[in-house]
Amino acid sequence: MVPVPASAAETYGAYSRITQRSAGQYWAGGKAAGQWAWNPQSSTESQISWGDPASWPPSYHETFHVDGDWVMLDGWAGNGTYYDLRVTSELIGDGNCANLVPVPSNGGLQHYVKWGVSSRAYCLKAWGTLTERSSGKVVKFGHTQIWSPPAPCSNAYYGAQTCVKQWESWWDNNNGDGTTAPEITRKLERDQYVARGIGMAFVVQTYYPNDWRAELRYHWDW
Length: 222
Hints:
Blueprint: H1 12-16, E1 22-28, E2 31-40, E3 45-51, E4 61-67, E5 70-78, E6 81-94, E7 101-102, E8 110-114, E9 122-132, E10 138-155, E11 159-174, E12 180-195, E13 199-208, E14 212-221
Antiparallel strand pairs: 1-2, 1-14, 2-3, 3-4, 4-5, 5-6, 5-8, 6-7, 6-9, 9-10, 10-11, 11-12, 12-13, 13-14
């Protein structure tokens, strides 16, 4: 398949639908596996909830800020509290995660994705801390992403579309029992395809800790 180039004016918003009250439901194994919904808080801030459609709304949501050329990640809510994500170091490079150079800090928020859709793949690496507001507990993390330019994509429910692909690898030192380890270890590796005009989780292919795939079946505005 021949990649579909992005127009000069195309933005991440046109793919993710971050700026509108939008939602989608993805399926795996012939049943609903999860649901997402964007809830814009202002012209520059939006929250996305992820959870089980049978017990909606969920307690979990992530908070993003659109700031100039970037979408910034502030943190997320869950377990009855909020987790402030703050980076201590960030790098950007090419699609092979080579030629890496520092990214200037923006108040400690993570540079999550470029707002303007890039015609070339790029790599983002971030290291920092998650602070649990309710307890003050601090978890160290490392997050690597590769964002690929628009290209043809498809799933069983929508057929042929155009997507940007996010590959990500998340590492932290959270033991999952309220304690932390000396070293960070890999917790997640996956691809996510975000479809133009449709939204998040068009295809989710997890590689670690399990081989698992889900595909978007429905999307709507609310």
